[in-house]
Write the structure tokens for this entry.
Amino acid sequence: MKKRMILMLAAVAILIATLAAVKTRQMQAGARQNASFQPPPEAVTTVVARKEEWPATWHSIGTVAAVQGVTVSADLPGIVDKILFRSGQTVAEGAVLVRLDSRQEQAQLAAAESQRDLAGLNRERAEGLVQQGISAQADLDRLAAEHKQADARVGEIRATIERKTIRAPFAGVLGIRQVNLGQYLEGGAPVVSLQSVRPVYVNFAVPQQQVAALKIGSPIRVTAEGGTPVEAAGRVTAVDSVVNEATRNVQVQATFDNADGTLRPGMFVKANVGMGAGDPAVTVPTSAVNYAPYGDSIFIVEDVTGPKGQKYLGVRQQFVKLGASRGDQVAVLSGIKPGETVVTSGAFKLRNGAAVKVNNKVQPGNNPAPSPEDS
């Protein structure tokens, strides 16, 4: 019985050893096969990196402001007697906008003019009597003073009547009318907004590091989104003398002719400011860049040597330092050289040394000034 047990254990041990040897050979064969396996090449698009003149520009967000802009208001209280403008109308400086009822002041003016004329006659009579030695000089002085007071009263009433005539303080474009005929206006009540829009200002902020490169007269272009995109060119005309302590930005003001009136006060615009002469830079499409927290990289297409010494078309991952962007392009400050071929699409499925197949039938955008279809 004991001998039979020993033989059975020996047979089981031999069987286990045989199975282990077979399995080891299978695993080794699979490892050799995996080591020699070359995944199929990935389809990508490519472009040759070029060295171009990169303009020194700064992009910012700006707001359009009128050179002069006010809300025209009533100087004195009164009832609206006449409205002499239309909403949205362009008016000249001094144009009459609204007349308030001044019938009471007109009556007061007639009485004051009569009083002034009477005081003038009394003074003339007193002058004759003084010359004849009949009246004293003091009487003449008193009557002369009364005449001056009457004349001043006439001027005061005329000024009141004029103040009830509301005029445009400068030439510009009117807004929406805020009064109606027969309405009683308090002193200071708004009548209509008036904006001078030819020319206009655009105010925007520039970081303090960029201020030194910004000069008075530097060119600037702005674009405003809308149903019909608005584009305009102007010049920098003023730089604030104070740096904002919260943002460390400096306010800059540019002036635009705005001859067609497309830029309106309060409009949101994107400003592109020229900062002097540009520098050459290697440009690639923005789609070629893999953005990552540990560093941005680009895949360069080149001949790669495999583990067995075979040559194939593959990629090399290259970390780069990026500069500014414009349109579909981005400037690469370091990491690649002009003439190198870079992957522009399909980079998300690549790894260092991966085989690729170039298919450039459809290319991603690479335009420094694209014009989107929905613009």
